[in-house]
Design brief:
The structure is a single chain. The protein is α+β, with helices and mostly antiparallel strands. It folds into 2 domains: 1-47; 49-253, no CATH class. Helix content is 28%, strand content 29%. The protein contains 4 helices and 10 strands, in the order ααβββαββββββαβ. It has helices at residues 2-43, 60-73, 140-151, 229-232, and strands at 97-100, 108-114, 119-130, 154-161, 164-165, 173-175, 179-183, 194-207, 213-223, 247-253. Strands 1, 3, 6, 7 and 8 form a 5-stranded mixed β-sheet that branches. Strand 4 and strand 5 (164-165) form a beta hairpin. The longest helix has 42 residues, at 2-43. The protein is globular. The termini are far apart.
Length: 254
Amino acid sequence: MEKMMIILLLIIVLTVVLPVNSLFAIKGNESFINQDKVNLNANISSLVYDLNSKPFNISYADWTEKWWQWTYAIPWNKNPSYDDTGEYCDENQHGPVWFLTQAFEHPVERTCNIPQNTALLITLLNSECSYAEFNQLKTENELRECAKNMQDFVTGGNASLNNIIIPHVEKYRIQTDLFNFTLPQDNILNLTAHTTQSVADGNWLFLKPLPPGKYELKVKGEIDSKVSANETGGNEYSGPIGWNQTTTYILVVN
């Protein structure tokens, strides 16, 4: 009888105490998340590289050139720009900066595992003109004007990290010098494999390395709603048309 009473008492104690402990655990976790949001909100601007900075001793403009060289070097079937899940997020990624892309014609959510101490460069919307795509253009100035004319149709953009708005993303627009890129077989421009020269113009978000953890990064560029692809003169990939979609990245930094 005494043993039965002890067992009953233990059951009662466990029934009452465990939910209470669980409740405190949930509250504690919520408190941590809220505090994390407060800290992130206070420092969100400091996570973005200044337009005039030289991350890893390379200028902002030169990093955007490297982004274009990276994306054009990857064949169509593995190109992260047309990847809806993040399967190819690490394709051809190396060094202290990883490159992220927008989504084409529909919103996507991509999950990417990012190494620690790695910065992230993502386009909001961008434009690029090369001799390969625009063979009627003959000079660097003509390439520069071509890229600018396309990018001028971009009206802004927005970005958030863990639902905290990153302010003033519209100011991060930059135009490159003349640079080379190489197209492989089965490239995303559907052109003959070769090396060409280009000038690019775009709006970017360049994030400093994030501490280990899980983050939700959302980006979306905006274009003039009255503009059509024919008006910009660009093709599917080199211009902003069709890329003004909400792209969500679940970033796992480890």
